[in-house]
Each structure stands twice: as structure tokens, then as C-alpha cells.
Amino acid sequence: MSFRMLLVGLGNRGRMWAEIAGHVAGVELSGAVDVNPAARASFAAGHAGVPCFAGLGEALAATASDAVLLVTPPDGHLAQARQIFAAGLPLLAEKPLTLDLAEAVQIVDLAAQARLPLMVGLNFRYLPVSQKIRELVATEAFGAAGFGQFTYQRNRDGRQPRLNKYPLTMRHPMMLEQSIHHLDLIRFCYGREVESVLCRTWNPPWSMYAHDSNVSCLLRLAGGLEVNYLGTWTGGWNELRFEWRTDCAEGVIVQRELFADLAVAHTADKALSPVELAPCEPFYDDSAALLADFVAHVRGDAPLACSGADHLVTLALCFAAIESSESGRAVQMAEFCARHDIAYPP
After folding, report:
1. Domain range 125-279+313-337, its CATH number among 2.60.40.420, 3.90.226.10, 1.10.645.10, 3.30.360.10
2. For each of the chain's 346 residues, which pLDDT tens digit applies?
3. Please, are residues 220 and 317 in contact by the beta-carbon 8 Å criterion?
4. The whole model's pTM is what?
5. Which residue from 25, 47, 216, 256 lies 20 to 30 Å from 40 (Cα-Cα)?
6. Do strands 194-202 and 214-221 pair parallel, antiparallel, or not at all (unpaired)?
């Protein structure tokens, strides 16, 4: 039996999700929603037989769906989630769940009250390189992890036609659109929670973004693991530079390229040795694996991965980092989560 998904949002990522869904066994689109007539017309031209709608309510009433895939700007997610859960449908939502922490808490609570699955599209967790780092750290293949350095340097032109435009004017675009992925990977790959964060965000004078496009954090994780993070969308060079190095008691684990290129070395080795990874087309294969997990959970065949409740902890980390930047003081995550009615993992 096919698994029918209602796709809400036909921007660049929404159209990508339509293609991804077509490659996940058993998944078909029951309909598509977008307020933009041109977006609907363009989508309809390439997806004959998939009905298109201007509004979510109309689509929910007119289609028979098993779940909703929400790919709209995050500032509308709370109202949309209310409609989706009221219709009795599970939800897979793109990150961030919202741009307001209290609203995100409401969405997670709504899902719990309705007893419906809520998954967040943290597809980078499904990259082979992320899975391998998590394995190497968990098994202590190079001894216990002691500290890490995560650097993402990019000069991102937010005016490109293929990119969403709302980050140009939103508050904290780097933190809530990009660093959120990186901080989530730090939690996921190290398999432990952040206990405190000391952060500084700022905007260089040449930035095209209206608000802070640079993020620098010092994170203390459970077990004494320290991570130094730097991320920027307004670097002084158009070349993307990425490196995530984890120093362990008996060696290092180094991801040298975004989405790939993992290498390791024992302490006395003269050079890094590459680690073989499964082939992966970023944004497609990882998203397909995430979608397959979501379908399996809704069908009762797997636990819920990337849950809304788990995403809340990453989102709380982002907002705690923002608070740290504004106050100039480190923020303790257990206290911050308690203050915002978020369950901090034991």
C-alpha cells in the first residue's frame, strides 16, 4: 500500500523533497500546496496527476493523506501545525521548527496532545560521514574524545535565485538557518548533551544580511568534552572552508570537507588515513533515508528518529547561545531548558 504525503511548500527545498519522495519506496504525493500561483503552475507542469492547492485547509479537506511534509518558512509553522494535527495527520517538518522557542514548545506539545508523530528534517544526521563519526566516537576507536574544533567558513550570497530570501532580513540568520545544523551534529555525533555554552554573534560591516551572520561558541559537553565552534556566512573569500577535528586520547578524527572526506590518525602516525564512506548525494540520499525512517515509524515499524522533542533541545541550544551573546555570560543548558519548559535529557 502506498504512503500518501501532502507536500506543503513548493520553494527550492519543497521541489527537492518532491523529487526525493519519488525515490522512496511506497511513497507518493497526495497533493501539493503553495500560496504562489507561479510555483503551483511550475510544479503541476512536472507532476501531472498531483493536485495543487493555494491553501493548507483546502488541501487537507480535499486529499486523502497519511502524513504532511511541511517545507514552508518557519514563521508560519505553528498555525500550520495546528491545522495538520487537528486533521489527525503525522508531520515531518523542515528545520528550524520555528524562529520562536515558545512556539516550538507549543508545536511539540500539540503533537503530544494529539498523540501524533512529529519529526524534524535533520537530514545531515543521515550523511555517511556523520554516521561514521558517531560510530568512531561511541566505540572510542581512538580513545575517549577530549576536545573538538568545528569550523565552517563561507561567503554565502543570499540573493541567489536558488536560495530562500527570508534569511536576508531575519534575526540571527546564521544561527537559526545554518549553525543549527552544526550544533545538532555536535550533539548527535558525540552522543552527549551540551552542558553550557559561551557564545558571541556579530555581523561584519560588509554583510548583506540584516542581522548577525557570524557565530562563535565554546561548548562544554557532558563528560568534559569541549568544542570550539566558528561559523560564518560572510567570510572574506568565496571559497568554502570546512573542518571538524576531534582530538581523542589516542588519535584524531578529522572531517575535511562538508558532507564527506573523513580521515583518522593514531597519535604516532605521520599522516592521516582516509576512511571509506558509502557514496551519498548530499541533500538527496540523506533526506531519502530520513523520509524512509519517518514512513517506517508512522507504519509502526521503527522508533521515531529526529523527534520534535529532540529538536527542541538543539533549538534551545541555539537560543541559549543567543542569550549568552547578549548577556556576555555562559548559559547553563539544564537551567535554560527548565526556564523554557523543555525536557533536558538526563
Report:
1. 3.30.360.10
2. 899 999 999 999 999 999 999 999 999 999 999 999 999 999 999 999 999 999 999 999 999 999 999 999 999 999 999 999 999 999 999 999 999 999 999 999 999 999 999 999 999 999 999 999 999 999 999 999 999 999 999 999 999 988 878 899 999 999 999 999 999 999 999 999 999 999 999 999 999 999 999 999 999 999 999 999 999 999 999 999 999 999 999 999 999 999 999 999 999 999 999 999 999 999 999 999 999 999 999 999 999 999 999 999 999 999 999 999 999 999 999 999 999 999 998 7
3. no
4. 0.96
5. 25
6. antiparallel
